[in-house]
Specification:
- The protein contains ten helices and no strands.
- By secondary structure, it is mostly helical.
- It has a single domain, classed as MetI-like fold, CATH 1.10.3720.
- The protein is flat.
- The N and C termini lie far apart (about 45 Å).
Length: about 220
């Protein structure tokens, strides 16, 4: 019981780490989604060398373990004269890494859309840009709810890896307290509970998205 009082006495450390985790998650997931939309737009149309190169780059990032990717950005890039502070490297790593996965989710949804929609939009005078952002993209997003949910939770969990580059987030807070007071069970159970709380909020938002998709005739349920 005493160990739980220790956790309560250092609740401010947990709250600081939890707040940083939320900030990292929200910023990186939002920017990653926007980047993914732009990437999918760039992949639209006939294949050429540039699109094949972009596709190969996305595959390379997705096949790399996130831990190695963070190490590369924070510890590897200084060797060629590019330096980021821990927070910049962390957000950049989360954003670019998960943008590749978001882009793959959207690309799969794009392939599943009827080709007649694009042809009809072009016949009505839509440009490629207008057709993608006003007609295709909303359907792609609404059809991909569960997959986005899984990837968002993966993004949330990947924030824990940023403790290796000295970002003080939730896992770092739990590690810090348990290493000083040797209370690993309460410290990490508390951290897991907070991660779970955020995951439940993500699922609730996706349920709302699912209801909206259903009213638009694009339900994924």
């Amino acid at each position: 019981m005493q160990s739980w009082f220790t956790i309560w006495a250092h609740a401010d450390r947990f709250l600081l780490g939890f707040g940083n985790t939320l900030l990292l998650f929200l910023l990186s997931s939002a920017m990653g989604f926007i980047a993914a939309c732009m990437l999918v737009y760039l992949l639209e149309g006939r294949q050429h060398l540039g699109r094949r190169g972009l596709r190969a780059l996305l595959d390379l990032v997705r096949m790399s373990p996130f831990l190695f990717y963070v190490y590369l950005l924070y510890y590897g890039l200084p060797e060629i004269g590019i330096r980021f502070d821990a927070w910049t490297a962390g957000i950049l790593a989360l954003t670019t890494y998960h943008a590749c996965y978001f882009a793959e989710i959207l690309r799969a949804a794009r392939v599943a859309l009827p080709q007649g929609q694009a042809e009809s939009a072009q016949a009505h005078g839509y440009t490629a840009f207008g057709m993608f952002w006003r007609i295709l993209l909303p359907q792609m997003v609404l059809r991909s709810g569960p997959l986005f949910g899984n990837q968002l939770i993966c993004c949330l969990k990947d924030t824990a890896f940023l403790s290796i580059v000295t970002v003080f987030e939730l896992t770092a807070a739990a590690s810090d307290i348990q290493s000083i007071y040797f209370v690993p069970m309460p410290a990490f159970i508390t951290a897991i509970g907070l991660y779970w709380l955020v995951s439940l909020c993500v699922e609730a938002c996706l349920r709302l998205l699912g209801r909206y998709a259903k009213t638009r005739g694009l339900s994924y349920e």
